[in-house]
Write a structure and sequence with these properties.
Strand order of the largest sheet of chain B: 1-4
CATH class of the largest domain in chain C: Alpha Beta
Strand content of chain B: under 5%
Distance between the termini of chain C: 27 Å
CATH superfamily of the largest domain in chain C: P-loop containing nucleotide triphosphate hydrolases
Helix content of chain B: 55-70%
Oligomer: heterotrimer
Number of domains of chain C: 2
Radius of gyration of chain C: 19 Å
Order of helices and strands of chain B: HHHHHHHEHEEHHHHEHHHHHH
Largest interface: A-B, 45 and 52 residues
Structural class of chain C: alpha/beta
Largest sheet of chain C: 6 strands, mixed
Number of helices of chain C: 9
CATH topology of the largest domain in chain C: Rossmann fold
CATH class of chain B: Mainly Alpha
Strand order of the largest sheet of chain C: 6-7-8-3-9-10
Chains: A mainly alpha (342), B mainly alpha (388), C alpha/beta (257)
Structural class of chain B: mainly alpha
Distance between the termini of chain B: 40 Å
Order of helices and strands of chain C: EEEHEEHEHHHEHEHEEHH
Number of strands of chain B: 4
Helix content of chain C: 25-40%
Number of strands of chain C: 10
Shape of chain B: globular
């Protein structure tokens, strides 16, 4: 039982990442009607915002020491990060919190990338067949990941967890169980709450702002809304930007869990597409539900007890669930009628 | 049964001429070595087969790499267990990939549109993951399936002694690496092309095009579309299987990475780049992508320096710096950019470009001939009505 | 209401269709006599298209059956129903836009000859001389010969409708269903279509026409049924129906016209 709870928890943070990416994918699909295969690349670029931010923070001033010698007999290099030099201890705090702070960098960057992408490329594909949308965004995804590779190389870039969130939280104790029964890495807990927060914010934004209302109306009936004289196109551009930001911050916060490399986006893309389809194309709650469900299911399937019964199940469980759901419930868990059906 | 319209016969003869003379006309491009030539023939066959599904019916499968992989494994097992004869290996590849395609197709074709794509993707990914893990006894996981000296090779060993080194695949004594291997692949490609041509110009092909154009109408016209789709799916799966088998024939090993979804993506690219729904287009697409993969990825900065040597030094440095990102390790960047450009500016692929240019020439030569030339504005965009 | 007599070819028996709480068709009972032209009229939203959708197998009825010559159609797929001899012309032309006019007409002929599925893989279309001749004839009959090799998607709306009719007629169906065959047509085109439909009237085919345009109804129909809010409210010859006060009320007090 404890093992099950632990696996559910383990699945939730991964599910959070799935849900965040799927949410953005669904927003774009629901509002713009575009199947965006470059969405995984946005997640990856978000992750590299964190890498960049830390690179900037750790730019060092190198001074050759005049007195001390290194073990090799050359003058010792004294390296001090500029951040530390300029801000003293505060600089160290900055460095420690580089990952969460990168969100500040990621938001404007992702918004910009999203808007440029939409205006520059995606908007020409609104009326084109889905197959062409898939292809052009697939090509774009390759371009984006290769650009990242050109700048950052092919190796993973591990990012540190802030000191405070290092180690594991003993959740069992909090609910009155014995110690060390259910321990859970603190950062994963942070990620879980973070993803819930972002999801909540997106839903609240769509629910309670006029902007969100128009977008929701546009999702269900684009023609009518544009006939009302509302400039729906501009709102959709911003929506694309927001979807990019959601994917981006999801990527930023995921870096301590999985060191990002340039293929990160593609790895997540296939999974999140499955998530979106399982949730139901165009359904935001469906994307979130499916994200967490598949995360947990995947995690449960990787328990040794399960693997002993059905070998290899952990490798294929997500795909298997996707196949079954698509066959039993063609529109996914919460999908609406008539979306993407011929 | 083998009557063939004159136009198709000419196309076929020209195509055969082009394929069989590849070693000659490709040498100025530095692409005339057997390994690459074999790949040209094999991937062209793969693309021709894929086009039977995607080009004719409009169903976008993201899982054809799985059939390629199955074909490779089946062929290598045929080498290991039975004989080094490539024909036998290809037969095994075809049978197994056919059965595999029948099962996957039967389930996937219960849905259409993007759901079909996701189902095929899911099955292919499952095959890929399982090939790496549980099915390791069959696939040898990460090491890949290879020949060993202890292989039973039942049929071969009835006729000859076990050699001291690893055997190579050979067709009645002709080794299947080198130029002989290329010609073997080329002959298979020509057979495959011929069959694809027959299918495209048969009533069956017409029904497939009808499904792409308006599947509902097909139903109300009295066609049961499912068996049509399934037949097309299995045929194109078999093409992929044979292509996988040929990969194993020319180089007897099989690895799971052949089944990864990026491999399926590459196949879709080939078809799109050349021109979906045309016979020759996917072949051209396959050749271009394989050419770039092999040639561009081998380029490095010193080659670029030589290439741009005519430029002034400082400009040369800059140009080399930029272009170096597109070659060698970064050749995928070229691939991706090419993709985007083709889909944006030439949705019909290279064949569409050829058509546009030739119609432009025709019009200039003889303005009265205009009626034969279909105005591109009026040309219905493929499946645009369906996708919305 | 109408007892099925010996020459009833298609019988819609007590068909009921609900969407959620909405009764699109309520106890509709219709008998279509062999060789007649039967018009179904009614205000918008009366359930006319739903009726056709039930007949061709697009929608399953909530209750009731459709019977063709003693054989129950309900539960069969659209392609099976077509193979049994029912062809349909849609309100917005359903054709193969990417295929040539010639191919558009040939495909249904293959369905008629070879059945719902045939592995006709290696025979070239050019060698199918009989079907080609048949298709050419009907294309000429319908005045589409000038555009025989044009992509059907590039045709004008009127030509598309004519093409769709040709596609149905090449199958020589026992029953032809026409869903507003003249909607959106100019008066001239309407008259051409009426002439065309009159021409095939003599061939013994049973025709069911859904129509708004009373001019068309009175020029063609032998029998008229009036559908309002999912119910048959009147039936009879065009003249009988025209005088029926219930019909006038349904149209005037209805949603439209």
């Amino acid at each position: 039982m404890d093992a099950v709870i632990l696996q559910v928890l383990n699945g939730l943070d991964k599910g959070g990442a799935y849900a965040l990416i799927a949410l953005g994918l669904t927003l774009v699909f629901g509002t713009l009607g575009v199947v965006n295969f470059a969405h995984g690349a946005l997640f990856m670029i978000g992750a590299f915002c964190a890498v960049t931010f830390r690179k900037i923070l750790t730019l060092e001033k190198v001074v050759l020491s005049e007195t001390e010698l290194s073990p090799w007999g050359t003058p010792l290099e004294i390296r001090t990060p500029f951040a530390q030099q300029w801000f003293g201890d505060f600089g160290n705090v900055l460095l420690d919190y580089s990952v969460p702070l990168s969100i500040l960098l990621a938001i404007p960057v992702m918004l910009l990338i999203g808007i440029v992408m939409e205006r520059g490329l995606i908007k020409h594909f609104y009326k084109r067949p889905h197959a062409e949308q898939i292809l052009v965004t697939f090509g774009l995804a390759i371009v984006l990941q290769e650009i990242v590779k050109a700048f950052f190389g092919a190796n993973p870039n591990p990012q540190p967890i802030p000191q405070v969130f290092m180690g594991a939280a003993d959740l069992g104790v909090m609910v009155g169980m014995a110690e060390h029964v259910i321990t859970y890495p603190k950062w994963r807990l942070v990620y879980l709450f973070f993803s819930l927060g972002v999801i909540g914010a997106v839903f609240a934004f769509l629910r309670f702002t006029t902007f969100g209302m128009v977008v929701r109306a546009g999702m269900s009936d684009r023609e009518t809304v544009s006939m009302l004289g509302i400039n729906i196109d501009r709102r959709f551009t911003i929506m694309f930007g927001i979807a990019a930001v959601v994917a981006g911050v999801a990527g930023v916060m995921y870096t301590p869990i999985l060191p990002p490399d340039y293929t990160l986006g593609m790895d997540f893309l296939v999974l999140t597409f499955i998530v979106v389809v399982v949730g139901g194309m165009g359904s935001l709650p469906g994307a979130v539900l499916a994200g967490f469900t598949l995360g947990v299911v995947q995690s449960l399937a990787s328990m040794t007890e399960v693997k002993d019964i059905i070998p290899g199940i952990d490798q294929v469980i997500i795909y298997l669930v996707a196949v079954i759901i698509l066959l039993v419930r063609p529109r996914g868990l919460l999908g609406k009628r008539g979306v993407m059906e011929n | 049964m083998f009557s063939i319209p004159k136009k198709d016969a000419i196309t076929f003869l020209l195509f055969a001429l082009v394929v069989l003379t590849m070693p000659i006309w490709l040498s100025p491009f530095g692409a005339s070595y057997p390994g690459l030539l074999q790949k040209f023939a094999i991937y062209a066959l793969l693309a021709v087969g894929y086009n039977i599904l995607f080009g004719l019916t409009g169903y976008l499968s993201f899982g054809h790499a799985a059939f390629l992989g199955v074909g490779s494994y089946a062929a290598v097992w045929s080498f290991k267990l039975l004989s080094m004869n490539p024909i036998l290996a290809l037969a095994c590849a075809m049978i197994f990939s056919g059965i595999f395609a029948l099962a996957i197709g039967y389930v996937s074709l219960r849905r259409s549109g993007i759901y079909f794509s996701i189902l095929t993707l899911a099955f292919a990914q499952m095959s890929y993951k399982l090939a790496y893990s549980v099915l390791s006894p069959i696939t040898h996981g990460e090491n890949g399936l290879q020949l060993t000296l202890q292989d039973p090779r039942t049929i071969d060993l009835m006729f000859m002694e076990r050699g001291v080194s690893l055997p190579t695949s050979s067709l009645f004594g002709i080794p299947m690496n080198g130029y002989e291997g290329f010609y073997f692949c080329a002959v298979i490609l020509l057979i495959g092309f011929f069959i694809a041509q027959k299918i495209a110009s048969s009533p069956f092909g017409m029904m497939l095009k009808g499904i792409k154009s308006n599947e509902d109408r097909m139903n109300y016209t009295g066609f049961n579309t499912k068996p049509y789709m399934l037949t097309a799916f299995v045929i194109s799966g078999m093409y992929a299987g044979i292509a996988g088998g040929l990969l194993a024939v020319t180089d007897p090993l099989a690895g799971a990475e052949r089944m990864q979804w990026t491999a399926s993506g590459e196949l879709v690219l080939m078809t799109i780049l050349g021109g979906v729904g045309t016979l020759v287009g996917p072949v051209i697409g396959a050749w271009i992508i394989k050419y770039f993969e092999n040639i561009f990825s081998a380029w490095n900065e010193s080659i670029l320096h030589n290439f741009f040597a005519f430029l002034p030094d400082n400009i040369e440095g800059f140009v080399v710096l930029i272009s170096s990102k597109f070659v060698g390790e970064g050749w995928h960047l070229t691939l991706g950019s090419m993709f985007v450009l083709v889909v944006v500016f030439l949705p019909g692929g290279i064949m569409e470009g050829v058509r546009r240019i030739s119609s432009w020439f025709l019009r200039r030569k003889d303005p009265t001939k205009d009626q034969e030339v279909v105005d591109p504005e009026n040309m219905p965009k493929p499946s645009s009505e369906k996708g919305e | 209401m109408v007892e099925s007599s010996h020459n009833t070819v298609l019988h819609v028996a007590d068909v009921h269709k609900t969407f959620g709480g909405l009764h699109a068709l309520a106890d509709v009972d219709l008998a279509f006599e062999e060789g007649t032209t039967h018009a179904i009229i009614g205000p918008n939203g009366a359930g006319k298209s739903t009726l056709l959708n039930v007949i061709v197998g697009k929608l399953p009825p909530t209750r009731g059956t459709v019977v063709l010559d003693g054989e129950v159609l309900t539960g069969k797929s659209p392609y099976e129903i077509n193979q049994m001899g029912i062809a349909r012309v849609f309100q917005t032309p359903e054709i193969f836009p990417e295929l040539s006019v010639f191919d558009n007409v040939m495909a249904p002929a293959f369905a008629k000859r070879d059945g719902a599925f045939s592995m006709n893989l290696f025979k070239s279309i050019e060698s199918e001389k009989d079907i080609a001749r048949e298709a050419e004839e009907i294309i000429v009959d319908f005045g589409l010969d000038a555009m025989i090799h044009t992509h059907a998607g590039a045709l004008s709306r009127g030509h598309k409708r004519r093409l769709e009719l040709a596609m149905c007629l090449i199958q020589k169906p026992r029953i032809l269903l026409l869903d507003e065959p003249t909607a959106g047509m100019s008066r001239h085109d309407t008259n051409t279509t009426i002439e065309l439909l009159k021409k095939i009237k003599s061939s013994g085919m049973t025709k069911v026409i859904i129509e708004h345009d009373m001019h068309v109804v009175f020029s063609l129909a032998d029998e008229v049924s009036v559908l309002a809010q999912g119910r048959i409210i009147a039936e009879g010859t065009p003249d009988e129906v025209r005088g029926d006060p219930k019909v006038q009320e349904a149209y005037l007090g209805g949603t439209y016209e």
